Amino acid sequence: MESIAIVFPGQASQYVGMGKDLYDADANVRRLYDIASQTIGEDIAKIAFEGPADVLKQTRFTQPAILLHSLAVLTVMKDALPEAAITAGHSLGEYGSLALAGVLSADDAVRAVGRRAELMEQACRETPSTMAAIIGLDQDRVAEICDIASATGVVVPANYNSANQLVISGTVEGVAEACRLCKEAGAKRAMELQVGGAFHSPLMESAQKGMKEYLETVDFLTPNTDIVPNVTAEPENDSERLKKLLVMQLTSPVKWYQTMQTFVRRGVDVVIEVGPSKVLTGLAKREIKDAKIINIDTMQDVEAFATVMAE
């Protein structure tokens, strides 16, 4: 019997037009977009489907748009999606995994991410900050360099994406210095990312208080499958613990590489990415060599899913 992991993407997976075919196909999907639009005070369907790209990439729009896309796939597929043995989401994608596992309703997940995006964008405006991808350098070495570069400005490891890809996060000055030192140390690439700010760093602390207060008003139910939170990369099924970890996640690194290792230990042999683009699909192919890796992004993917699973 196959052991299935279902994963949900985070920021930087967005593209203009994403989710429109799913929106057109299902009234329940359209209702979720309406909830999100009411939450953020903007027409998120119009922004996601028509852009422009520089508007869609703004944090307050990107995060709800990506989650809506993932939830749209779940809504359209209904029972056609097989039961997951384990689930995880990259950064904001963790809310998708909570919805899949029954911890949050889809409506509550949409509202929570709308609030999260607003708080994180506010934090971004407080301090000029950025992120950069470091490729081809040992993770421990990158962490050491971040410590050294912190004398110039805040900079920390933010996303452990794979064995040789780590994203760092911090002030513009701190990240620039860390990139310089990483290149000197032999990194293949050290490139700044086009993001709104320093996610998963101490510069997001101002967003934590508001998120904690908001989540205290939301009921978290017991999950029906194990969830692997970003903060720990270990299976978790305590709903109150999951709520606390969502708050911690804002300033803690995303341990995605470690999450893939957890999947391997759990014997996962099928990974299904639900949502826009194929970022997590690519990372899973690199880290879980013998697994079947499937991405469900469009209606065409939904319609082809049964055939792909049977291959």
Concise account of the structure shown:
The protein has 311 residues and is α/β, with parallel strands linked by helices. It contains 14 helices and nine strands.
Q: How is this structure best described in words?
A:
- With 311 residues, the protein is α/β, with parallel strands linked by helices.
- The chain folds into 2 domains: 4-124 and 203-310, Malonyl-Coenzyme A Acyl Carrier Protein, domain 2, CATH 3.40.366.10; 128-197, Alpha-Beta Plaits.
- It contains 14 helices and 9 strands.
- The protein starts with a strand and ends with a helix.
- The model has no long low-confidence stretch (mean pLDDT 96).
Topology:
Elements: E1 4-8, H1 20-25, H2 27-40, H3 44-50, H4 53-56, H5 59-77, E2 86-89, H6 94-100, H7 106-126, E3 129-135, H8 139-149, E4 155-162, E5 165-171, H9 172-184, E6 189-192, H10 205-215, E7 226-227, H11 239-249, H12 256-265, E8 270-274, H13 279-287, E9 292-296, H14 299-310
Parallel strand pairs: 1-2, 1-8, 2-7, 8-9
Antiparallel strand pairs: 3-5, 3-6, 4-5
Helix pairs in contact: 2-5, 2-7, 3-5, 5-6, 5-7, 6-7, 7-10, 8-9, 10-11
